[in-house]
Amino acid sequence: MPHLAAVGPSDGLARAGEERLAADESARGAVRAERRKEILRQRREELGLSQEDLAARLRISVRAYGNWERGLVKEWTDRKLLALAEALEMSERQCFWLFRVMVDRDPPPTWRAAEENRLPEDPAQRDYLCDYAALMEAVPYPSFLVDHRWDVALTNSAFDLLFQSVRPHPTALPDDNFLRFVLFHPDAAAVLEDHEPAWCVPLLAQFATALAEAPEDEGLRSIRQEVARDPFMEAAYRYGVPHWLSKRGAEAAEQDGAVRTVHHPDPRWGVVRCRMVAESSRMLEAMGLTRITLILSAPQGPPAGPVRGGGSAHPQGARLRAVPSLGE
User: Fold this and answer.
1) Could you give the CA distance from residue 30 to residue 326 in angstroms, rounded to a whole number?
2) C-alpha Rg value of the chain to the nearest Å
3) DSSP secondary structure string, 28-51?
4) What is the pTM of this model?
5) How far is 50 from 62, CA to CA, in rounded Å?
6) 3-class DSSP state of 55
7) What is the C-alpha to C-alpha distance for residues 211 and 217, in angstroms, rounded to an integer?
8) What residues form DSSP beta bridges with 144?
9) Which pLDDT belongs to residue 64?
10) CA angle 276, 281, 285 (to 5 degrees)
């Protein structure tokens, strides 16, 4: 009898455990389903596209695409996902996360992001950007090119090194959109010291100005909607930023000359003060681009050797999103 008495409760505990696991799996499935819907909607809005526009790109009906965005798809095949990646103008990294979120596996190894459609139409501008990539790579400090939406067009190796420990994220990577990274990436505070007062608030102020100047810009409106979905970020945008500007003055939100602090992964730098230098040129202005360089205050050390994480200070050449590498 003691043995039989022990069996009953044990079976009950096992069933209870199975029920809890099933409930946990169901909760994770619900979160995953919502994330699937969000990643498609967010990317579409970033590009300023309607569901009708995207349906036209995919050559399917608006109703069919609406079902895709709502997650009402029986099976996400490679063909469907690759078509989505092309229609949504996704980079290789974004396509990787599309597959991971949708079907929990990598995209086919033969897939390559179609970057050609992001090249400037003007041949002179294309040549200029290619040469500018070489100039950027010669700079020993983190440097990057952004447009009015903070979309990143070019980074150098020093920039890549500074953010090498940042985990993948569907929409807020530092080399995809710097504003989204600062506001929404969970790893931003690990690299950007005094993250909220020194980085978030000034960028929110700059964003408010940009949105006021271009209220119909779909990329900026998409960021505004994401800010609105976060109660703390919304409070900072609506009340914190105006109060901060009233105390500090509008010049406090300027990028050029601003002094910030970053946590560099190379132990020879560590936590280091940097000055932001924002500049442009006639050709860059014509393309709507601004160059931002983070001038680190510590003196440059000897030629770079191995650093934490097994990389080097200049592991790769400059990575221009709009210009394919020569090896492609």
Assistant:
1) 43
2) 23
3) HHHHHHHHHHHHHHHHHHHTT--H
4) 0.62
5) 10
6) helix
7) 8
8) 155, 292
9) 81
10) 100
Q: Which of 120-156 are b and which e, b meaning 16 or more Cβ less than 10 Å from the residue's Cβ? A: beeeebeebbeebbeebbebbbbbbbbeebbbbbbbb
Closest to 141 in 3D by CA, of 155, 152, 129: 155
202-231, pLDDT tens digit by residue? 999 999 999 999 999 888 998 999 999 889
Neighbours of 264 (CB within 10 A): 21
For 303, the token pair is 């030629």
Query: Of all residues in the chain, what percent carry a pLDDT higher than 90?
Result: 32
**Residue 272: its pLDDT value, please?**
93
pLDDT in tens, 134-167: 898 888 999 999 999 998 888 888 898 899 888 8
Residue whose pair of structure tokens reads 């290789």 in the numeric block:
92
Q: How many other CB atoms are there within 10 angstroms of residue 257's CB atom?
A: 10
Unique residue bearing structure tokens 């078509």: 83
Separation of alpha carbons 127 and 288, rounded Å: 16
Task: Write the single-letter amino acid at 278.
Answer: A
Strands (E), the chain: 143-146, 152-155, 259-263, 271-279, 290-296, 319-320
What the block records as the tokens of 56 is 């036209």
User: Which residues, including other chains, have CB under 8 Å from residue 286's CB and lie 6 or more apart?
Assistant: 125
Structure tokens at 167: 């985990």
Q: Cβ neighbours of residue 316 under 8 Å, at least 6 residues apart?
A: 157, 160
> Could you list the mean pLDDT of each consecutive 10-residue stretch along the chain, which spans 328 residues?
37 50 51 73 87 85 83 79 87 80 76 48 82 88 93 87 85 88 94 93 94 91 91 90 90 90 90 94 93 82 41 39 37
